[in-house]
Amino acid sequence: MSMSKDFENIIRLQSYSLSNITGDAVSDYIRSLVPEKQGFLKEIEDFSKEKTLAIVTPEVGSLLGLICSIIKPKKIFEVGTCIGYSAFLMASYSENIEKITTVERNPLMYNRAIDNIKKYDKNGIINLAIGDALNILENTTDKYDLVFLDGAKGQYPNFLPHIERILNDGGILFADNVLFKGMVASDEFLDKRRNKTIVRRVREFLDILSKSDKFVTSVLPIGDGVAVCMKKEQKND
Ligand SMILES: C[S@@+](CC[C@H](N)C(=O)[O-])C[C@H]1O[C@@H](n2cnc3c(N)ncnc32)[C@H](O)[C@@H]1O
Questions:
Q1: Ligand 1 within 6 A of CB of 22
Q2: Can you tell me the distance from the alpha carbon of 226 to that of 237, in angstroms, rounded to the nearest whole number?
Q3: For residue range 15-50, what is the model confidence (pLDDT) as tens digits?
Q4: What's the predicted TM-score (pTM) here?
Q5: What are the CB-based long-range contacts (under 8 Å, 24+) for 185-190?
Q6: CB-ligand 1 contact for 101 (6 Å cutoff)
Q7: Mutate to test the pocket of ligand 1, among 43, 52, 78, 81 (most ligand atoms within 8 A of CB)
Q8: Domains of the chain
Q9: What's 54's DSSP letter?
Q10: Which residues contact residue 129 at a Cβ distance below 8 angstroms, ignoring those fewer than 6 apart?
């Protein structure tokens, strides 16, 4: 390979790993098609941008909204509330929604989410829990139609048995950041040594899901990578 081809390759790899999975032009175009949010969702989105909080990207948010519109979940469990943006987004797309349980371990985010819920959750749909999602999942006995996983990627494999237990048959697991800036797809994209463990754990998570006979799984290269998985109906032979 020529020097200039090598160089082009490095630039290409860097731009993949540093920005998003599909490359800037495609992602920017897809993002430009997502309608701007209105009202309080826009307020929370703008606040998050100003404070550089990691909330779902517009294109991932629109896929999540589409899933909510199709499956019309009554009960949703979310790992990683941040300040509540995605919880409100899912509520706004889910016409039969009764309850969203969302877990946040960072007290700063939790307090801001509480303020947002007091201000905007007029129907008392969003139940916010503070603590580590694994502890809360371990003690959860309710059943859910949708689980949105959006925190602590390194813990995803530990969450999985509990998610399987709390999901109704036909329920959806929607997991964000499963390609982690491309690093999960290839070690070429690894930026820091300390991300190695996270990458190994996410690969393990995707490996279990894709080989599982309990889930139908699709991994999509949008945003930071998304896995959409449906829990199959469990037949008692
Ligand atoms: C990417 S943000 C969530 C963004 C939010 N879902 C949204 O789109 O508006 C991830 C959040 O998960 C929280 N988090 C990470 N690991 C967690 C865990 N094990 N238990 C509870 N919260 C966790 C972090 O504190 C952070 O606020």
A1: no
A2: 33
A3: 444 445 666 888 889 999 999 999 999 999 999 999
A4: 0.90
A5: 185/21, 188/13, 188/17, 189/13, 189/16, 189/17
A6: no
A7: 81
A8: 3-231 (3.40.50.150)
A9: -
A10: 101, 102, 103, 104, 136
